[in-house]
């Protein structure tokens, strides 16, 4: 059964710092991995999708890496800004031949001005 | 492209009442997902449609829950005889294909008194 863990659960950093969020999954036979952002009380916004054949994906100040063999992904945020404050969630498809995605519980990020 | 929309955004109901939520996906997306999210948790998969066909249903979806997607466009999620444990954010997402980027709506927050 696929399980997704995100560490740390919460993180508070000063503005301008570079930071890394971690996501680990128990079954490495994944099709892809998605990173999302969620603002309080809102829906999720897709940030990056990494296919299983890729090792990295970049969008602006965000860089996501994927190491399938070790069951890990990281989301790197460069030069953090107060507007980056949100909860960041990763999700992978269930590996039991279904279409559903399994989400982690997220990392709640606060960037202090 | 107006994104995924959900209606209503908030719903307060008394225990035992029936409620229905609507999701309008991005127009060309033929995949549609429903998730439930409680405070501090990641979204939990409820059900998945490919066009009008409901291809998968979570065991979380008791027989009080039903979802439809007539004509493969909008979808409805109905909860009958609501219980306090049904209080959560109900999220809808759509995608162009299986295992592609999911685009989420703003969610419907349900409170059962």
Give a written overview of the molecule:
The complex is a heterodimer of chains A (113) and B (113). Chain A is mainly β. Chain A is built from no helices and 11 strands. In chain A, 0% of the residues lie in helices and 57% in strands. Chain A is globular, with a radius of gyration of 14 Å. The model of chain A has no long low-confidence stretch (mean pLDDT 93). Chain B is built from no helices and 11 strands. In chain B, a hairpin with a 2-residue loop joins strand 5 (44-50) and strand 6 (53-57). In chain B, the strands form 2 sheets. In chain B, strands 2, 4, 5, 6, 9, 10 and 11 form a 7-stranded mixed β-sheet that branches. In chain B, strands 1-3-8-7 form a 4-stranded antiparallel β-sheet, with no helix packed on it. The relative contact order of chain B is 0.34. Chain B has 113 residues and is an all-beta fold. The radius of gyration of chain B is 13 Å and the shape is globular. Chain B has strands at residues 5-7, 10-13, 19-24, 31-37, 44-50, 53-57, 65-68, 75-79, 88-95, 103-104, 108-112. Chains A and B meet through strand 4, strand 5, strand 9 and strand 10 of A and strand 5 and strand 10 of B.
Q: How are the secondary structure elements laid out?
A:
The complex is a heterodimer of chains A (113) and B (113).
Chain A (H helix, E strand, L loop, with lengths): L3 E4 L2 E5 L4 E7 L6 E7 L5 E8 L4 E4 L2 E6 L4 E6 L8 E8 L7 E3 L3 E6 L1
Parallel strand pairs in A: 2-11
Antiparallel strand pairs in A: 1-3, 3-8, 4-5, 4-9, 6-7, 7-8, 9-10, 9-11
Chain B lengths: L4 E3 L2 E4 L5 E6 L6 E7 L6 E7 L2 E5 L7 E4 L6 E5 L8 E8 L7 E2 L3 E5 L1
Parallel strand pairs in B: 2-11
Antiparallel strand pairs in B: 1-3, 3-8, 4-5, 4-9, 5-6, 7-8, 9-10, 9-11
